[in-house]
Amino acid sequence: MAMTKLLIANRGEIAVRINRAARELGIRTVQVYSAADANSLAVEMADEAVEIGPPAAAKSYLNAEAVLQAARDTGADGIHPGYGFLAENAAFADAVAAAGIAFVGPTGDMIRAMGDKASARKAAQAANVPTVPGSDGVVDDLQAAAELAAQIGFPVMIKATAGGGGRGIRVADNAADFAKLAPQAAAEAKAAFGDGGLYLEKLIERARHIEVQMLGDGRNVVHCFERECSLQRRRQKVWEEAPSSALSASVRDALCASAVALAKSVGYRGAGTVEYLYDDQTGDFYFIEMNTRIQVEHPVTEAITGIDLVAEMIRIAGGAALSVSQDDITVSGHAIEVRINAEDPSNNFMPFPGVVGDMRLPGGPGVRFDHMLYQGYQIPPFYDSLLGKLIVHADSRDAAITRLKRAATELRLDGLKTTAPLFLALAEDPEVQAGKLHTKWLEPWLDSHSATLTDKKGNAA
């Protein structure tokens, strides 16, 4: 039976995005919210709204029972978790299903199989999807580890199996390095974590981050081509585009086929993303992980394929089959998304919550701005700083960058400092324009450019 009332278990721009998709499908919406979000745009837009707790996310958006109770009280027959919060919580997905409500996403068992990195790596290997070369589990014997490192090929990463926060990690460039560093890594891991176990992975230097958008209905799976998200700060994506300018047609075909094989191996249902590292020196790609939810950067895929991914997720959760076949899905043009955060890029990206004053939003051909803003809106300080996503689409990558510069210049949010100046500067950079990027590119660039990331008035926005 098709869904009739959808509860949105999230906030901010993604809550607004889900609301719009549901209403276009003729589905009524229920917005749950914390006390800090009572005046949010998502609450204003919903047919019904239910307060579920205080500002702290642990007591509101992460309170699974409060969300479920809101669904029961309002008669919602579906719950969309968006991204973050409860989106990849297998127990929550189980509880929603047990309550007789449709979870807009994969089953709890699928989340367990693909959300855990170790089990996902095993699933990838079983599906013949390339993974980063490394040891098959913990290596206890250092001599055997040295022989394996030579087989893998230097440089290799020596990692503590119980490590975290970068502790217990060494990079060996050759066998002599390995002989010196492996005992150090084991000793540090033993001291820090009580477990000196090590495992090895090949270091993929100057890798690109490539991810494939998947859709499945539990019976069939299709891919919607790839996105590239190599521009990252502290491992957080800031600029995403589709398709990747680095892939040849044959590599793209192989990459997407491997993602489909992996999703099919678990009978995947819903939207998901299979993420890879891509070495453009060798043309090799390696599975990293799968995200079992909609991604922040999904609009660039929507722009180049014309598929409403959020609407498709909702239809599938309501029992419908995929509305598209693989042959229906083609790429048109190039799209770029940048994340507009309430942060000061000239001051180490210091958060800048405040009240939205006069605002001017970009528009015109090929421009989309997904956001949660209105004039007078008080941005709460309790959550992440994402205000909105500026998405541009054009016939080519060069034209998309030109359009991005035009659109970012039009954006005006008085009273706030935002990351918009960062993207104007990146769009002018010759290496960005040439697509000569990798996941370690942005941070050194920021070291030499951050002080200049202000607008014409000398402000950061």
TrEMBL record:
Entries under PROSITE patterns matching the protein: ATP_GRASP (PS50975), BC (PS50979), CPSASE_1 (PS00866), CPSASE_2 (PS00867)
SUPFAM superfamilies membership: Glutathione synthetase ATP-binding domain-like, PreATP-grasp domain, Rudiment single hybrid motif
Highest taxon, organism lineage: Bacteria
Residues annotated as domain ATP-grasp: 121-318
Key words of the record: ATP-binding, Ligase, Nucleotide-binding
Pfam family, one: CPSase_L_D2
Domain Biotin carboxylation positions: 2-447
Entry keyword annotation includes Protease: no
Catalytic activity reported: N(6)-biotinyl-L-lysyl-[protein] + hydrogencarbonate + ATP = N(6)-carboxybiotinyl-L-lysyl-[protein] + ADP + phosphate + H(+)
Gene3D superfamilies from the UniProt entry: ATP-grasp fold, B domain
InterPro entries: ACC_Biotin_Carboxylase (IPR051602), ATP-grasp (IPR011761), BC-like_N (IPR005481), Biotin_carboxylation_dom (IPR011764), Biotin_COase_C (IPR005482), CPAse_ATP-bd (IPR005479), PreATP-grasp_dom_sf (IPR016185), Rudment_hybrid_motif (IPR011054)
Enzyme Commission number, as recorded: 6.3.4.14
Signal sequence, start to end: none
SMART domains, per the entry: Biotin_carb_C
Ligase keyword on record: yes
Primary role: This protein is a component of the acetyl coenzyme A carboxylase complex; first, biotin carboxylase catalyzes the carboxylation of the carrier protein and then the transcarboxylase transfers the carboxyl group to form malonyl-CoA.
Name of the featured protein: biotin carboxylase
Organism: Paracoccus fistulariae
Lineage: Bacteria, Pseudomonadati, Pseudomonadota, Alphaproteobacteria, Rhodobacterales
